[in-house]
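hey so u asked for the seq, here:
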Amino acid sequence: MSDIHEQKILILDFGSQTTQLIARRVREARVYCEIHPCTMPMDQIAAYAPKGIILSGGPASCYESGAPSVDQGIFGLGVPVLGICYGMQIITHLLGGVVARGAKREYGPAKLEIHKLTGPFRDVEQDEPQPVWMSHGDRIEKLPQGFEALAVTGNSPVAAMGDIERRIYGVQFHPEVAHTPGGAAMLAAFVLGDCGCEPIWTMHNFAEATINDFKQRLGGQKVICALSGGVDSSVVALLLHKAIGKDLTSIFVDNGVLRAGEVSEVAGLFRDVFGLNLVVVDAADLFLDRLKGVTDPEEKRRIIGHTFIEVFEAEAKKLGEVEYLAQGTLYPDVIESVSFKGPSAVIKSHHNVGGLPDKMKLTLVEPLRELFKDECREVGRELGLPESIVSRQPFPGPGLAIRIMGEVTRARLRTLREADSIVQEEMRAADLYTKVWQSFAVMVPVKTVGVMGDERTYEDVVALRIVDSVDAMTADWSRVPYELLAKLSSRIINEVSGVNRVVLDISSKPPSTIEWE
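ran it, structure tokens below
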């Protein structure tokens, strides 16, 4: 896979909340990049051989004791450097300029007047000021030797700077965020123009290179994959199937808490359409028996996780000597474990299959560990996955069990499945399914009085949870049309036996979570 990685950008992270957005914008320019902490040793930076380096923003002030910095050797590599916000300030600080607390802080929208069309501004139309997004309290008081101001705002006499001969630039605003409309083009101008990268990072090239790589490395070896029907595991399974065919065994476990029709849909698609070597395990009764009487959310998760491992391991043993386990780790999970702010305690449990690698002593295969979610979806399209899988909303590992408040019973599962099916159907009909992050129904452990016909009822409550998000770290409730909410309520109450009230969850994350358990 060397070709598509030959021309790459190194992003050094100083703790900004938007560092991942920088990487996404570089990838959108069809250039490969990686995020590493700003503490990356100089010998590793040199060995990485980047075509250019981007320094992210961060919450610190560069002149304070203990503020994060970077090895000055990066300026001697002869490759272009772009500093964003704190990254611009650390360049100034290290190269002999002066950074100080500004008389005014600058947060929010600003108008950028560009004085020189060079570096990241080479393709900008200079006729009118550019709308940009600021988030800083410090400012450049004195430029380093060899630098000149490239742009200004009303509050920043040095809103962008550059040493044009050495191709070292700094911008005080955040080009990576949506509030800077021309920011993506500025980053593209830097990586394609100054750094001289070619736009070869495409998901077609990635899929082709990955398949060829695994064909050479894993051909003749036994590999297993836990297939859930979600986009990540589906793309992993299909990539490996195209590489090694029958040497891959995908295992799909019916844990009893899946959505309506999911088992037949997944089995039909991957076994009958794509021809995967697929084992479908019906363990619904085992899972549901173990969940009987359990109401604590964490206990539900523990039971489902441990039972899954038990069932998966039993199926894997039937295959004899297996050497590799494939899983759908994505790049944000990798970043999380090595971020400047400190390694996370664990990579999300739904990505490491509840601890299977340690327990089963298998070598991990992670074909997607370089990809963002949107790139993973694009690979799925390249492989011919239907849009129903590619655009599928996130679904929790414990399934409907954590969307049923209280005990999980077969009767309550039936009620929730019917309500959930209506939600999915109507969201798609309204062309909103792919425009929100998640939309689902929740069974609330409350019964309320209602009137149906001439009879008084005392039945269940269903809550609707429809949220907008980018990465699930934060979320807000979606402002869907009232007409759609009315239709959802009417259909659920009329078509789902035992439900007489529908409510809407309008809480954000934080303080609430997306899921109810």
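The first strand starts at residue 8 and ends at 13. Confidence is low (pLDDT under 50) at residues 342-355.
lmk if thats what u needed
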